[in-house]
Design goal:
With about 110 residues, the chain is mostly beta strands. The chain is built from no helices and eleven strands.
């Protein structure tokens, strides 16, 4: 399985971030692992944001509840992240992950 994150590299504060994780190497509908979004702010450790399972059931970090949405489209072999009310402290490299597979990450900077 290969994962590739895509989306904007620069977002203004208070705006909404939308990221896409495109999965190749097999249909995600047959992978029963949790697809996760994980981020790493500059100089800090990895932070788990949320996950979606094969049935579409989601889980989210309590610190992000109300701001974060994760979803998947099995037909498009894609997993999505949406996060609103962005703040400068949301600046981070955002990763998509399933099992032992990780995308290369995408740097998102929140700045006016």
């Amino acid at each position: 399985v290969q994962l590739q994150e895509s989306g904007p590299g620069l977002v203004k504060p208070s705006q909404t971030l939308s990221l896409t994780c495109t999965v190749s190497g097999g249909p995600i509908s047959t992978n029963y692992g949790y697809y996760n979004w994980v981020r790493q702010p500059p100089g800090k450790g990895l932070e788990w944001m949320g996950a979606v399972d094969n049935s579409g059931r989601t889980d989210c970090s309590p610190s992000l509840k109300g701001r974060f949405t994760i979803s998947r489209d099995n037909a498009k072999n894609t997993v999505y992240l949406q996060m609103n009310s962005l703040k400068p402290e949301d600046t981070a490299v955002y990763y998509c992950n399933v099992d032992a597979a990780w995308g290369q990450g995408i740097l998102v900077t929140v700045s006016s």
